[in-house]
Amino acid sequence: MALVASLAFESHVHFSDRVAQLLDRIDCRLAESVEDREAIFRLRYEAYLREGAIAPNFSGTFSDPYDDSENAWLFGLYLKGELASSIRLHVTAGAHRDFPSRKVFADLLEPELDAGRVIVDPTRFVTHRDHSRLNPGLPHVTLRLAWLAAEYFSAEHFLVAVRAEHQAFYRRTFTHRPICEPRPYPLLAKPISLMTVHYPSAADRVHRRYPFFRSTLFERRMLFERYPSMPQIMPANETAEVHHAA
After folding, report:
1. Is residue 240 part of a domain?
2. CA-CA distance, 236 to 244, in Å (whole number)?
3. What residue ranges of the chain have pLDDT lower than 50?
4. What CATH number does residue 136 fall under?
5. Would strands 82-92 and 72-79 be described as parallel, antiparallel, or unpaired?
6. Who contacts 25 (Cβ-Cβ below 8 Å, separation ≥6)?
7. d(Cα 12, Cα 173) in Å, to the nearest integer?
8. pLDDT tens readout for residues 142-176
9. Could you tell me the pTM of the whole model?
10. Is residue 230 domain-resident?
């Protein structure tokens, strides 16, 4: 048993090292240009179509009005100049109460909003199939952006809206727990359930297991200090594959 545990620990350490190395090679940027956004919408379409989550369309893209929300950050992650993955983040607090998961899970989330709790809602998480095969840590690097947002904005809840077959990944990586049965989700063919993790309670445990989820305040500011229209959402410290179908 000791040997098995030792081998498992060694494998875990090696994986963390590989993800850290991948972080050094990734270029992450906010999608602000028409070209960047269209490339992300095409990657989404290819990934969701391959998973059978959407029907074919003539545009070959997949987007929705939430891409233009004031409290949304749409990121592309690039390897050697090629789009490797993308994720959209909504941060909700104060007047910014609208976000994708609220539309489907209002009964669960409205009480949290009314209590003044900050929520990070990552959606439209996709990876390029070839890059994902070559870089098994790509999902972790992409979801790291949601983790950093939870710290920067002092979030209580880090949500994920996922299909049942993807729950194990989030439970293992971030200690998410499901809080409802799967429900129909707008624009998607397959039902989705909501999972959440209380970020303040989970942060230390996740950082010990996966050190690459740690970050500096400078990095978090570079990623998220871009929306002066959201002054009431303050940072915590002033000093293509579809991986979930929402």
Report:
1. no
2. 27
3. 1-10, 228-229, 231-232, 236-239, 245
4. 3.40.630.30
5. antiparallel
6. 79, 80
7. 12
8. 999 999 999 999 999 999 999 999 999 999 999 99
9. 0.88
10. no
